[in-house]
Write a structure and sequence with these properties.
With 381 residues, the protein is an alpha/beta fold. It is 37% helix and 25% strand. The protein starts with 5 loop residues before the first strand and ends with a strand. It has 2 domains: 88 residues, Urease, subunit C, domain 1 (Roll), CATH 2.30.40.10; 289 residues, TIM Barrel.
Length: 381
Amino acid sequence: MSSHPKVFKNARLVLADEVKDGSLSVDTNGMIDSIGAPTDVDGHDCDGDFLLPGLVELHTDHLETHYAPRPKVRWNPVAAVQAHDAQIACAGITTVFDALRVGMDEDADLRYPDMRILADAIETGKEENRLRADHFIHLRCEVSAVDVLEAFKVFEEDDAIRLISLMDHTPGQRQFVSLDAYKIYFQGKKGFSDQEMEAFIKRRQESASEHAPENRKRLSAIAQERGISIASHDDATAEHVEEAIELKTRIAEFPTTKEAAKASHDAGMAVLMGAPNVVRGGSHSGNVSARELAEAGHLDVLSSDYIPASLIQAAFQLADEIDTISLPKAIATVTSTPANAIGLTDRGSLESGLRADLIQVKLVGNVPIVRGVWREGRRVA
C-alpha cells in the first residue's frame, strides 16, 4: 500500500443514485477518503471510463473446473485456486464466495475430501498473499444426499464459511420439475441407458424422501447457531418459500418461477439470479427468465454462477435493456445489494469510509471491458 493517498481522476463515478464525472481519493489504509469534483492533481487517470465498486460474487461454481479440468484429473489445488482467482479478479470481482459442494451424487467425480482440499488451498492462498480477490466459502448443501451432514462436519471449525445454500436437485421438483428435461440432461451428461436412467431417478427420489426434510432442518439450525447466512436454492412454489422463511433464509437463489421469486422478494429475501441467464436472454434449463423478474422488480442480486465475466456484462445489459433500471440500480445488483445481503457492510459502494475496492470499466459496444481492478486501494489486475 502506498504511504500517500491515491487519486482517481477523470472518472465517470457510478454512485448509489447517479453517475457523475469527478474524482475519488483513497487514504493510506485503503479506504475511500472522499468523492470530489474533477481535478487536475496527480493521480490515476481513468480516461473518462466508469469507476465502479468492486463486484461482489455470492455463488460461483468456477473453482472446481480448475481443480478437476478432466474426469479423474486433479490439478495442484493452490495453483487451481490461483488460476480461478486471476479469472475472478480480471472480471472485476473483488469479493468472491467460492461454492464448494457437500452432499454428493453417488457417482460424482469429486468427493467431500476434495472440497476440504480446496478450502485449505484457499486459506493457503490468503496466508501467502497469493490472491487478488477477497475469498470466502459458500457451502452448497445437497439436502437429499445421505452424506451431507457427514460432509458438513469437515467444515465445522472453518471461519471462512459465511453462506450455505440448501439445495435439492431431486428429479420431479424445483429445478427439475420436468422429468423429460431431467432425463435429457443426465443421459447426455452421464451416458445412461433408459433403464439405467429410470433406476437413477428412483434412487434419487427415495433418498430425498428419506433424508431431505431432516437434513434441511439440521443444517439450518447449525448455520443459525454459527451465524452463517442461509440461502434457499431453486424454490418453485409458495410452500417452498414458506419453508425458507421458517428457516430464516436471507437469500433466495435461482427461484425457478415468478411465483416463488415474488414471494421471496415480498418476504424480504434477496432474490439472486444468474448473470448468464440475463446475457443469454433466458434460463438454460427452461426456468423463469432473470430479465422477466428484473422487469417486475423482483430481482435483487446477480451471480456469475459458471461464467465470471458474465457478472459485469449482465449489469450493463440490464441498464441498457430495461427502462426502469438505471445504471446505478443495475450496478447495485452486483455490488452493494449482495454485500449487504451477506452482512459485508464495509464494501459495495463508492462512499467515504468504505473499502476502496474499485474497478475501471470501459463500455465498447454492448460488452464492457474491465481495464483496472483495485482491492483496498492496491492494484490487483
